[in-house]
Amino acid sequence: MSSPQFALFALAIGAIIGAGTVLLVVWAYRIRMLAAHETSTSVPAGVTEVLHGMDDPACVLDPSGLVVATSNAAARFGIRSGAVLDNADLRRLVRAVRGEGGSATETLRLTAGGMLDPRLVSARASRIGPQLTLLIIRDVTERERLEQMRTDFVANTSHELKTPVASVSLLAEAIESASDDPEQVRVFAARIAAEAGRLGQLTGRILSLSRLQAAESLAQIEPVSIDEVVASSVEAHLVQADSGGVTLARGGDRGAWVRGDAQVLIEAVGNLIANAIVYSPKGSSVGIGVKIDGDVVEIAVADQGIGIAEADAERIFERFYRADEARSRRTGGTGLGLSIVKHATQRHGGEVRLWSRPGQGSTFTIRLPRIEAPSVGKKGAKKKAKKKRSDKKSATAVGARNGETA
């Protein structure tokens, strides 16, 4: 073999050896990287940032169940980095996913994190690597509560509407059978009218409550005078108070203003006054007072009635709930008045509070954000002054009639 041929041969052998060495090194490097990936418990790049941007509680766990990364909301369920996952149901879900692969979702009730009431959650576990599992917890307690409320509302409404409809049907049959007795016909006709009125009231209140809950905002938002709200509510219930032998007494601060829908507020305060009259004994007094407390206006309706037990006070604002079922049936109560008060107040950015003692009476207080009185021009000022004098005369007449306190 000549020298040039030998050189070419040696060069080819060297190239083959070199290429093989490079391939061997690359293969070894890839094997090393694969092994490192299979055994690594480091959180992949970007996962931590995603967790910090999540509103739901979430965490990443290693094979031993140790939490290596969390979202900010995870602390609500007692999940913290560097600690082992406490809840046995969540650990079981994570183990199942780690063993079978893929992802899995379960609905659980959790009481972790020092919470007193169990929370209904939808927990989803997914593998994000050979050694790591992502756990996301979504609190669905509120969704379940709303669904239950919707179901109860439909069931209760059907039941409440069924009663007066059935009564009207039976009374109509009674009138037919007593057609030859004019006195009995008049009695049954009066009862039909009462049941029809109750049915109309129930339907109206269901519609009012549905509008308050369904609408995203109030239909009409403008400055509202609390003096006018209280005066209109009192005037609307003077006849009811007279027939019940109850005195309405209005007092407190004047000149308070809020922002909202005047008609909705009049209905809310009117419901409180109507309830107070119904549950007050004859000869007693119902007080309607207004108090300006900084940036808050308080409208309180107090009675000297039978009061509300502590167990009933927790549910008194629920739809169709009646603390005294028999009395409500007798007086034609729908069980929706206080629910309307609650939702109307919340729609105005406020809250309603209750103080009550059995045998001593009850006080319902509506608290609303206060605004400054709207400015008016010279012409408007004269008109307002004239209206104020008219309201004062009207209030004096109502006070003389109902024992108003200053």
TrEMBL record:
Keyword Nucleus: no
Keywords: ATP-binding, Kinase, Membrane, Nucleotide-binding, Phosphoprotein, Transferase, Transmembrane, Transmembrane helix, Two-component regulatory system
GO molecular function per UniProt: ATP binding
EC number annotated for this UniProt entry: 2.7.13.3
Segments of this protein annotated with the region Disordered: 369-406
Biased composition (Basic residues): 379-391
Parts forming coiled coils: none
Domain (Histidine kinase) ranges: 156-372
Stored Gene3D superfamilies: 1.10.287.130, Histidine kinase-like ATPase, C-terminal domain (3.30.565.10)
Reactions the enzyme catalyzes: ATP + protein L-histidine = ADP + protein N-phospho-L-histidine
Xref: SMART domains: HATPase_c, HisKA
Transmembrane segments: 6-29
Superkingdom in the source lineage: Bacteria
Signal peptide: none
Subcellular locations according to the entry: Cell membrane
Name assigned to this protein: histidine kinase
Organism annotation: Microbacterium bandirmense
